[in-house]
Task: structure prediction
Amino acid sequence: MNKQELIRQLAADTGIDTCQVRAVLDSLLRTTTAVLQQGDKLMFQGFGAFYPVQQTERPGRNPKTGEPKTVPSRRTAKFRPGIAFLKDLNKDKIE
Result:
């Protein structure tokens, strides 16, 4: 499912206009990015948490030339799913 399909699905589920759903989704994505840029965790109770991770500088290689180079440190994000989300995801597997 891509972003446009998600917007259509949310609009159908809630009865809210697609333009309004798009605005809310865009705001959610901007806010998530801002929170992680500040180094904070964003938690959705029962769903999971997004949190920032700082990757350290490491040795690497240019894939085309094989020339050694240093990959600079960077910030990335990870997601840890919540227990309720995992239960819902796997409820067909639970006997």
